[in-house]
Amino acid sequence: MSPDESETHRASPRDKIVRMANQIGTFFLSKPHEEGVAGIAEHINKFWEPRMRRHFFEVVDGGGGTLLPIVLDAVGTIRRPDAPITPEQERQANAGAPGGKGEEYGEAKSRIAASQG
Hints:
The protein is mostly helical. The chain has helices at residues 3-9, 13-28, 33-47, 50-61, 69-74, 87-94, 109-115. Helix content is 61%, strand content 0%. The relative contact order is 0.12.
């Protein structure tokens, strides 16, 4: 493949975000709709860094592109990168933390921060 050809095959960050969000959405299509919508939002809120969510909301704000309908249904509960964390989102982020970690279990904020490198 020539250098010119490789440039046309390189996906933009926007395309990658759409693909990743749709992969998550496809996984959750096997669940009841409301459970799937909640699962998508929970996954993105827990595991996507602010930059990724910023790209995601650029797509959403631009009309949604080729995002699956179930992903678009989850938009209302996905935290925008500049939005404060709600108590419910914090609870979801700490739910199921391995080894019962987090402030809920008495772990100090300084220790949590240190563990996140």
